[in-house]
Structures are given as structure tokens and as C-alpha cells.
Design goal:
mainly alpha, 154 residues
């Protein structure tokens, strides 16, 4: 459904971007004694920003998905659904239920992201590179090759 794509695409972009930015800015390294609280915070905030960014689209998506239950359709399109919803309920239609959604989003996403990150970290073991940036890995490899060629030419 088009409304699902309208909601999911930016939501997941914001979701993962927020998590990445927060974990990088807080320095979430496996050896850090506060890594778990940092991961929980970053995951929770990622869920909150995701929902904040797409809640109005979720309202429309949900209304369109429920439309036609009982055989009666009231919306002819996405735009029609927005118009009728705002006309009948005002712009607050796009924020109704947001508080409970955000209260649920923080702990659910905090636990989800922290669990996945910790499982992946421990599954990779000590062989995992500290910095997963391709440019940084390439630069380190390039520097190592330069050192080897200098050593062999002496």
C-alpha cells in the first residue's frame, strides 16, 4: 500500500540515522562500562524520533487500512482521507494517541536496539574491527602497505 511506503521509508531512515548519530556521539564502544545504558538511550530515542516524524502518515495509513470494514468505504484517496479527517476532527487528529505511542516506543526500541547491537558485538568477537568505516579501514590498509613497501626497499 502506498501509505505504508510513505510512512515506512522516512521512518526507517530517521530511525537508523538517529541511532547511528547518537551511538557515535556518545562513543558506544564494547569496552565502555556504560555501553548498555548508552545503547538503551540511543535505541529509545531512535524509536521516539521515528514515530514523531511519521505519526501523521501513520494515522492516515491506519484509517485507509480500516476503511471498507463492514463494506462501506468513506475515503476515495489519501488526499480525501486527509481532507475529511481534518474537516471532521481538526488538525489534532494527527496527534491523538501520540503520547501513548511515544511512551511505548522508547522502551521497546531501547531494548530492541541494545539487544541486537550487543548480540552482534559478542557474536563477532574480538576480531571485529573497532571502526567500521570503509574509508578508515582502507586508509589503515593503505598505510600498512606503505610501511611494508618502505621496509622491504631498505
Amino acid at each position: 500500500m502506498v501509505t505504508t511506503l510513505i510512512r515506512e521509508t522516512p521512518c526507517f531512515g530517521i530511525y537508523f540515522l538517529t541511532y547511528d548519530l547518537l551511538t557515535r556521539s556518545m562513543g558506544c564502544e564494547p569496552e565502555d562500562s556504560y555501553v548498555i545504558p548508552k545503547l538503551l538511550f540511543a535505541g529509545g530515542m531512535s524509536g521516539v524520533t521515528c514515530w514523531l516524524s511519521t505519526y501523521p502518515a501513520d494515522v492516515i495509513k491506519t484509517r485507509l487500512q480500516a476503511d471498507g470494514v463492514g463494506g462501506v468505504y468513506q475515503y476515495s484517496s489519501i488526499v480525501d482521507c486527509v481532507r475529511q479527517s481534518v474537516r471532521k476532527e481538526g488538525f489534532q487528529v494527527f496527534t491523538r494517541g501520540l503520547t501513548s505511542t511515544l511512551l511505548r516506543a522508547f522502551p521497546v526500541n531501547a531494548i530492541t536496539f541494545a539487544t541486537v547491537t550487543l548480540v552482534l558485538t559478542y557474536a563477532r568477537g574480538s576480531e571485529a574491527p573497532k571502526d567500521c568505516e570503509p574509508a578508515a579501514l582502507g586508509a589503515a590498509h593503505h598505510t600498512q602497505l606503505q610501511q611494508q613497501s618502505q621496509a622491504s626497499s631498505m
